[in-house]
Amino acid sequence: MIEHRVRVHPSSDPLPREDQLAWKLAAVATATDELDASSVAMAVNRVIDNASVAVASVTRRPVAVARAQASAHRATAPGASVFGSRVRVPPEWAAWANGTAVRELDHHDTYLAADYSHPGDNIPPLLAVAQHTGRTGADLLRGIVAAYEIHVALVKGICLHAHRIDHVAHLSAATAGGLGAMLRLPTGTVHQAIQQAVHTTTATRQSRKGEISSWKAFAPAFAGKAAIEAADRAMRGESSPSPIYEGEDGFLAWMLDGPGSDYTVLLPERDEPRRAILDTYTKEHSAEYQAQAIIDLARRLRDKAGPLDQVRSIVLHTSHHTHHVIGSGANDPQKYDPRASRETLDHSVPYIFAVALEDGTWHHERSYAPERARRPETVELWRKITTVEDPEWTRRYHDPDPQRRAFGGRAVITLADGTVIEDELGVADAHPAGARPFDRPAYRRKFRTLAEGIVSDADQNRFLSAAEHLTDLGAADLDGLFPAVDLEAVAAYDAQLPKGLF
User: Fold this and answer.
1) Using an 8 Å Cβ cutoff, are 146 and 138 in contact?
2) What's the pLDDT at 208?
3) Which of 23, 38, 90, 228 shows the greatest Cβ crowding within 10 Å of its Cβ?
């Protein structure tokens, strides 16, 4: 790996384009060629994973809204497919609809380091453009692997959330780079696309604060749509704000650490294998990733805790990130509100721990149902749960060794009679270093579980066969990556929605 120092440069001291971070990211993308076999296998897993959660969310309101907006923009041939629809639309609108479907349940992959990310969000825009431009499965895989490489590098090197900037700014850069790799664009073109994408997708973290709205599902779809439009613009010969990261009025200077910004981003050498995707991990449970181990810990503690009406207090000792983002350290009263939105509840670790402790399981719909959140005994337990930051858990969260990095915590349950029950869990069971690391059979099971009752067994088999042979798929075969759902049921759901402008 090569260390790239990224800092602010005044306009009076122009930074050569080859020294700009956006150029270096573009160079990583355009030099992505011969792919590592393990990276390809993991990319296939993530295609399966994305389809799983997209199918399960097909009749959820935000997904239906995104689908309706996209479907109003019919494409001249060839266009790209929309989950839950027969229509083909321009690729940027397919990315909008499908990206929202993938993100809605907060149930696909993650990578946590200096910042947060869901790198699987790169796949919907890449797949849409692959369909529209007649790319093969091998081309798509090259784009996915390159996008993950860029995304992981940025998340490791540059923290956004400390400055209240939403993490989709890194996503858009990664998607633009992945498009460049998939389409084999010149480095200069990809450089401009990355800059335009970052410039147009920098937003505040209010989308993940307080009363969290459905925009949380739309935000990565917007980044993917913007990245496609940026690539199209760059391919037509247009330039973008430059240097987007290092400029004196640019991303670092005004959005992050100011004129003194100084970051190090690690990128692979030209011929180095692209293996960053192997550092990422998916979710067994439909909740914020930092709650994954907490759910597994609650399941483990359920029998030890005894009657939950005897609980006096529960304190979760955890990392800075978990305490301040999804814990009581966020100081969001909505995290304890039984009328809160689903999006808020899946960012409330006190709620999640309470329900997992009561039920001994987690379900992507039932665990968030309004009637579930408003049970009196649940609300009583929920409001006894707080989090505290433990420096040791913060240190483990940032451990440079991925095998020792931990995203969980220690639960201290104090009962009414003074008895104290404690247990801890560093990583989720499904994490690569966990008790049951996700493998291809686990991804297949996740797909079949979430597709049950939505996709027929025969169509489930057809999709899995297409995904697992992605390397060999021709351009006309990429339609097989969209599992067939009951279109009449989807149309009936969509018909109930309020109408918009289109």
Assistant:
1) no
2) 75
3) 228
At 328-366, the pLDDT tens digits run: 999 999 999 999 999 899 999 999 999 999 999 999 999
Q: How far, in Å, CA of 204 to CA of 210, rounded?
A: 13
Would you put residue 164 in left (φ > 0), alpha (ψ -120 to 50) or beta? left
- Is pLDDT above 80 for 210? no
CA distance 246 to 6: 7
Residue reference for tokens 């420096």:
391
Higher pLDDT, 502 or 330: 330
User: Per residue in 68-87, is it b (16+ CB within 10 Å) or e — as a string?
Assistant: bbbbebebeeebbbbbbbeb
pTM of the model: 0.94
Decide if 148 contacts 174 (C-beta within 8 A). yes
CA distance 5 to 393: 28
CA distance 385 to 329: 12
CA separation for the pair 66, 490 (Å, rounded): 13
**Are 98 and 128 a contacting pair, CB within 8 Å?**
yes
Q: Which pLDDT belongs to residue 337? A: 97
Which segments of 158-291 does DSSP mark as H helices, in order? Answer: 168-183, 187-200, 215-235, 251-255
Tell me how far CA of residue 266 lies from CA of 3, 154, 156, 240, in angstroms: 5, 8, 8, 24
CA distance 120 to 103: 9
Question: In the sheet that 409-415 helps form, which strands lie side by side, from edge to edge?
Answer: 385-389, 311-318, 409-415, 420-425
Cα 205 from chain centroid (whole Å): 15
Distance CA 85, CA 189 (A): 33
pLDDT tens, residue by residue, 383-434: 999 999 999 999 999 998 888 899 999 999 999 999 999 999 999 999 999 9
Note whether 179 and 144 are within 8 A (CB): no
Strand partners, 425: 409
Q: d(Cα 57, Cα 217) in Å, to the nearest integer?
A: 11
